[in-house]
Amino acid sequence: MPELPEVETVVRGLRKTILHHTIAKVIVDAPQKSIVVSESFKNKAFSDILKNKTIQQINRRGKNILLELSGDMTLWVHLKMTGHFYYKNKSEPKEKHDLVIFQFKKPNSEFSLKFNDYRRFGRLRLFYSDEIWEQKGLRELGPEPLEISSDDFITLCKSKNRMIKPALLDQTLIVGIGNIYADEALYASKIHPKRILSSLSNKKLTELHGHIQRILSLAIENMGSSVDTYTGVNGESGKFQTYLKAYGNEGKPCERCSRKIVREKIGSRSAHYCPKCQKI
Ligand SMILES: [Zn+2]
Fold first, then answer.
1. Which residue in the list 60, 63, 125, 245 is annotated as catalytic?
2. Is 269 a catalytic residue?
3. Would residue 25 show up in a list of annotated catalytic residues for this protein?
4. CATH second-level architecture of 150-273?
5. Which residues crowd ion ligand 1, with CB under 5 Å?
6. Does the annotation mark 60 as catalytic?
């Protein structure tokens, strides 16, 4: 699943391509569950509502993409497992898993933006902007890891008596961190993924906060990690996967101590860590 650096890269790609563009037409070939329209639109169709709307702002909150449109509405997109946007010449044929195609007015009428999602867990939701933050999935989100101060991060962690790895993935605690960046931050900080958050010292939590911010920033600079199907809006892959030291490195020697990196199921997800450097 795309995590903060990948979603941030998509947002930046969308800003470069469709910001201030006006939608001419929306073609939908998606299962019903992929698209949600607020009841406030009184059963109007998704494609009809979006026609003639201009994209005024494009922002990210955690792993969510928020496109603010004219008419005081927001298109809220979550990519989930395999959802992605492509900006392409309009003449390119429709591909099998293109679920929504946005076409634009002049001077951008040669291009279209496609939302493609072969596993179909991604969601496009349309709400009026004044109701968007009341929605489940947005209202309960925790702080942004690149914005939270070290002191606030320590306070947040000290209040939780739970294992650190699943906690870091919990979007209500802190947003944007998924399996890749949680494993990398814990490896860099030499913290075992099963450690209880409240048992960590302030010094260790300060270190972890620093590594989370450093790793996420470096990953954004490298346009994210393409470990599965992820690509940016222009079709370009991320480059951060070459920097990964724990995630996906099962059986390879640890860079620090040469012990083999192990993979273990913790919570419902696989954790990758060095059993020697990251002692419980
Ligand atoms: Zn090691």
1. 63
2. yes
3. no
4. Orthogonal Bundle (1.10)
5. 254, 256-257, 259, 274, 276-277
6. no
User: Beta strands 64-69 and 98-104: pairing type?
Assistant: unpaired
Does the structure show a pLDDT above 80 at 246? yes
Q: How confident is the model at residue 267 (pLDDT cuts 50, 70, 90)?
A: confident
Measured in Å, residue 268 CA sits from the centre of ligand 1 at 24
Mean pLDDT of the chain, nearest integer: 96
Q: 15 and 9 in contact (C-beta within 8 Å)?
A: no
Compute and round to an integer the Cα radius of gyration of the chain: 20
Annotation: CATH topology of 4-134: N-terminal domain of MutM-like DNA repair proteins (3.20.190)
Spell out the residues 6+ positions from residue 78 whose beta carbon is closer than 8 angstroms to its own.
63, 64, 65, 122, 123, 137
> Is 63 part of the annotated catalytic residue set?
yes
- Residues 205-217 have pLDDT tens digits of 999 999 999 999 9
| 86 strand-pairing partners | 114
Q: What is the dihedral of CA 168, 5, 85, 99, to 10 degrees?
A: -10
The pTM of the full predicted model, rounded to 2 decimals, is: 0.96
Q: In this predicted model, what pLDDT tens digit does every residue of 20-54 receive, in sequence order?
A: 999 999 999 999 999 999 999 999 999 999 999 99
Delimit the domains of the chain by residue range: 4-134, 150-273
